[in-house]
Amino acid sequence: MPEIKSLYCILIFLIPALTSALILVGGINSVICELLAFLGMAATFGVSILAFSETQTKILIAMNGQFRMDALSGIFGVLVSLIGLIVILYSFEYINQEKERGVLDEGRTRSFYWQTMLFISTMLCVVATNNIIMLWVLIEATTLASAILVAFYWNKEALEAGYKYLMLLTVGISFALFGCVLLYSGAAFHVSGGENPLQITVISAIAKKGLIPPSIVLLSVAFFIVGFGTKAGIAPFHAWLPDAHAEAPSPISVLLSGVMIKVGIYALIRTISMFYSLFSIISLFVVILGLFTMILGVLMLFIQEDIKRFLAYSSVSQIGYIVLGFGLAGIIVGNAPGAKEGTYIAMYGSIFHIINHAIIKSLLFLCAGAVILRTGIRKIEELGGLGKKMPVTSFCFFVASLAISGVPLLNGFMSKFTIFLAGVKIPGMIWTTIIAILCSILTLAAFIHVSYRIFMGPVVGFVEKFEIEEVPLSMWLGMIFLCILCFLFGIYPQIIYPFLNMATNIALQVIKGG
Amino acid sequence: MEAKLISTLSLSLIITSMAIIELRNLRYSAYAYLLQAIVLCSIILVFAKTNPNLYYWVIVAVITKVILIPTFLIRYINKTTDQEIKPLVGYLPSILLALMIMIIFYNLTHTQANFIAATPEATHEPFRTNLAVSFTIFILGLFCILVRRDAIKTVHGLCILENGIHLSLVSLAPTLTETVLIGMVTDVVIAVYLLLYVIHGVYVKFGSTDTFQLKTLKW
Asked: Residue A204: pLDDT band by 50, 70, 90 thresholds?
């Protein structure tokens, strides 16, 4: 594929970064903050769409190859900016309501918007970089940019979550830094003239030639799994995730669960999969890690009392599916019959589920945020009978619940089914499909219980006592849009096939080299 | 001569790490960290004779590790308390455990340097000792984070951990230009500041920096 110089690689993260700076300097009141954030995010979304369409036929590079966007980066770019735009729209009313309740003031409104824009900018920069150290720096930057947002309410729970979030993610990512250092030192002495030993594509080419000592490769991979795996919320490195997702303001929970953890997965795809062909044990280990994450996440659903923690553990479980697909993609690289097909399907399913989970989980957190905003209650058992009072939220929550459980005609089914199929296609891996199906059944049971309890369950006192009404248009507009996507990708998945096919081929190129 | 100097400085990083972890007074721990940062900067300075670009890293490291991080630590210790909360395993067992980890890990990594050395040169002195020290202090930093109950002490652990990585970086590829860039951009100074900022909030709300009190969010 031809490489062309393109400013999109830089604009995609520069626009939200500049918007953040503008809000910090000039956001004198909430209206200006909202306007700037919306304009900045709309422009970012526009650029991400342009970059995405360009990446279907070309590879975009900037600054001498330091920034590089291919079809895989393009998809992630659109995902982050789309969810970012929906979150900004949703935040207008959410933050205003919090101000009316006396939780926030003007100063904190400004903090919220500039930090959110900075957070989005760091995530977009992750997908545009082609430098292994910058990848590390930017993943750490996503943590730093969002840390104060996690502890935003500054109460006991939020501070506890903020401390755990910062400490666990920084320690975790330190492992990834050690991995980067080892890999860099292993590759650096083999670069030919003019090449940069920090560029992922250069390291990948050197690794494929077997020039990096095997012990260094294995040690680096182990460190990457701990480091980027912590960011992705892979068990057992997920301890920060339920606390942070639950205690952050709901729009931030959407970003954390919808897109930030996917950035960790993106880093894993870009780094460890380049060693799949050298050591088959790596992919098997990833598969086991995925299954462990999936099982742990789904079992934890049944003991949750808080709606946001419930959704957070569901994210852990769904990350398990993504990791399973990503691991299966490397199980057999090009020898047994049907292996090629299985590898392709596994990677396709994994990337498809990244997109679907971003859509579904964002929708679920938007709905949960709406419920919490209107009732002030997070405990599942204390909620009930909201279906008639909040029909749009109720409908969207039900759709998302069914989608995440893998019910046919919805997007979650298509991606999960693809991953199941990969397990069947790849010789000796059918047991992974059986476990994954069982986990899906458990997910369905847990979500039906929670959805029924909150929206159709017995009406609790306060619903009758107080006037509870649906959230305003700016909040449910994004929900409806995501809901439509759930149906669209579920009923007509062919619509996204060409783009996913491109992204899958790029990811498979990382595995095979080239 | 230089190799001996580097090895001596490198080994003194282990001693300073032990001091940071085991001193009960957080202020003294911060001073021990300051000393460690000066030693690490000195090591980079010695390597800079062969790669002058490393001087840039020395300048940045002096600003972040020697000036900013200790200043932040002292500032927030002044705002909270300088007496460390008793560690999870008790003071004496903590010293014994840290010593045990230090001896085992140093010996293991020093004798098995071939496993962690990316190049044949890295198995020779002083790189061999440096690599062993870097892995040892990385593990000691992790040990500090895991067994200490005091939130500020865990930040000290994070700083030790990062120094271990930076020592390995300068030891594995001291002659390359990119090493300087990596060293400069991977400093944890912002993470340390934000952690201390949040820990101060914890201290105000909980009345203590004891991480055992952070049990509101379970499961």
From this structure: confident
Burial (Cβ within 10 Å: 0-12, 13-18, ≥19) of residue A406: buried
B215 pLDDT more than 80: no
A469 and A479 part of one domain: yes
**Torsions phi, psi for A68 (to 5 deg):** -150, 125
Residues A157 and A87 in one domain: no
Q: Select from A129, A150, A173 the last residue of a domain.
A: A129
Q: Which residue has the higher pLDDT, A184 or B2?
A: A184
pLDDT at A101: 84
The pLDDT assigned to B114 comes to 82
Ramachandran category for residue A426: left, alpha or beta (phi over 0 → left; psi -120 to 50 → alpha): beta
pLDDT digits (tens, 9 = 90+) for A416-449: 999 999 999 988 899 999 999 999 999 999 999 9
What's the number of domains chain A is made of? 3
- A461 with A481, same domain? yes
Give the span between the Cα atoms of B161 and B35, in whole angstroms.
15
pLDDT above 70: residue A462: no
* Residue of B145, B197, B216 lying closest to A157 (CB–CB): B216
CA distance B6 to chain A (A): 19
Site from B114, B145, B192, B198 to mutate, A interface, most A CB atoms within 10 angstroms: B198
Q: Domain range holding A105?
A: 1-129
Please give the residue of chain B at the shortest CA–CA distance from A195: B178
The Cα–Cα gap between B11 and B110 comes to 12
Mutate to test the interface with B, among A164, A181, A182 (most CBs of B within 10 A): A181
Q: Is B19 helix (H, G, I), strand (E, B) or coil?
A: helix
In angstroms, rounded to a whole number, what is the distance separating the alpha carbons of residues A150 and A253? 8
Strands, DSSP E only, in A393-449? none
In a shared domain, residues A368 and A425: yes
Which one-letter DSSP state was computed for residue B84? P
Of A137, A163, A188, the CB nearest to B186: A137
Confidence (pLDDT) at A38:
96
B119: left (phi over 0), alpha (psi -120 to 50) or beta: beta
DSSP string covering A61-116: EETTTTEEE-HHHHHHHHHHHHHHHHHHHHHHHHHHHHHHTTS--HHHHHHHHHHH
**Residues contacting residue A261 through CB under 8 Å, at least 6 positions apart:** A231, A232, A233, A241, A315, A319
Q: Which of residues 294-313 of A touch B (CB under 8 A)?
A: 300, 303-304, 309
* Yes or no, beta carbons of B217 and A300 under 8 Å apart: no
Check residue A60 and report its DSSP letter.
E
Q: Position A163: which residue type? A: Y
The answer to whether residue B137 scores a pLDDT higher than 80 is: yes
Q: Mean per-residue pLDDT for A375-386?
A: 90
Q: How far B40 CA sits from the closest chain A CA (Å)? A: 17
Task: Let me know whether A302 and A234 are in one domain.
Answer: no
- Its ipTM equals 0.94
Cβ proximity of A212 and A183 under 8 Å: yes
Angle (nearest 5°) at CA A326 between A509 and A185: 60
User: Number of A:B CB contacts under 8 A?
Assistant: 128
Q: Is there a single domain that holds both residue A194 and residue A179?
A: yes
For A208, the token pair is 């494929």
pLDDT of B4 reads 84
| Nearest C-alpha in B relative to A313 | B219
